[in-house]
Amino acid sequence: MPDILLCRLELLDETDITLDLSKKAFGHQLLEEAFRYVSVREKDYFGLRFENEKGLKEWLDALKPIKKQLRDAAHSFKFLVKFYPSKPSDLQDEATRYLFCLQLRKDLINGRLPCSVDTATLLASLAVQSEFGEYDPLEHDDGYLESFSMLDNEPPEFVERVAKLHATHGKMVPTEADYMFIEECSKLSFYGIHFYNTMLDKKESKGKLGVSHEGISVFEGDLPHLHLKIIHQWFKVTEVFFHRKKLGLTVAVDEKTCTGSSSETFHFRFERESLCKIVWKSIVEHHTFFRRHKPDELPKDSLFNRTMSHRYSGRTQKQVIDDAFLPDGTKKPEAEFARTSSLTRQHFRVAAPRYTSASSLHARAKLAKDVSPVPSPSKLRSPASMCSLGAGNGRALSNGSGSPAYTPSPSSDFEGRASLSAVVL
Predict the structure, then answer these.
(1) pTM
(2) Domain 4-82+316-365, CATH number (from 3.40.50.10860, 3.30.1340.30, 3.30.460.10, 3.10.20.90)
(3) For the chain, percent of residues with pLDDT exceeding 70
């Protein structure tokens, strides 16, 4: 089949699916079919990440042909969370929060989200509550958590502590457990941060640049022992540009106006020019998603279309939240989805495939025979009233308000040049 492009997707529950596309397909076609498969409405929080021919991980661009992005690389993608909101209440649908829990569990296991043992115990007990429901001593014997994993190196008696805390959660339904799980994770210092290795100064000391809903963070050291030097919050960042391996940030010094009239520029160096471009694109997309009312549009006849430029093509967080409600303020009905247990390898699966004859895509997946029904959600209780275990690691990178800002920056024009790529934020 010379005109067919086979794309393998690994979903958050470790399901593998294969989608057949035309070799001329664009990124948005694959993204839409992935979103349709997992039946998620708040799709803009997620993306497809792949490893390019240089071994670097980057996100699939919706506006470019797939073949031009992967080149000689294998057509394998991972469906992952791309934008982490500041708090779980920003996520309107139960299905979205469920997928976020799967992602955060991966972050905890692979060490991207380090935490104390007490916090890990609480998080593990909430994950168990979400999957097993109310603790039943007759059904949940001593070995019911033998295959459960939450940390890379679990301390002694960890599983026993998790089981004891699970028994205290009572009749908490899965949607409540998911909400609490995300809320506790959002308090951790490295929650939602995408890390990139960089050189921090002229002495070329190694560090990491972090991009998140809060802004751009600069760290010394390496995970899990990172030291925060500074965080440039989005409302202070006025311009980001790169030239070859060097990335530059222009930050407003006047905190009252943040107009850029008084500003300072910071420079970072990366091992490869391609990595520098990936970081630049991540900054542009995060700023647009969390800071803007709507994405910018490049004029079709713009001179910049013929040089280096990039723009975020999805909905902003404000648009995602607004689209979850009707004009009268009533929340739109949520799409049905099925919860499955990662412990028993029952994979997440929509009730029925919704591929029409008009589509050139066909999905093939490993399906679970039995899928447990979703318990009816109850009114969310205050998370503080549901647990008494220590809070664990406090939030170290907080902007004080706890919520992203949506006010557009004074300028939204993208500036591209043949040797220098920049965007005025």
Answers:
(1) 0.78
(2) 3.10.20.90
(3) 73
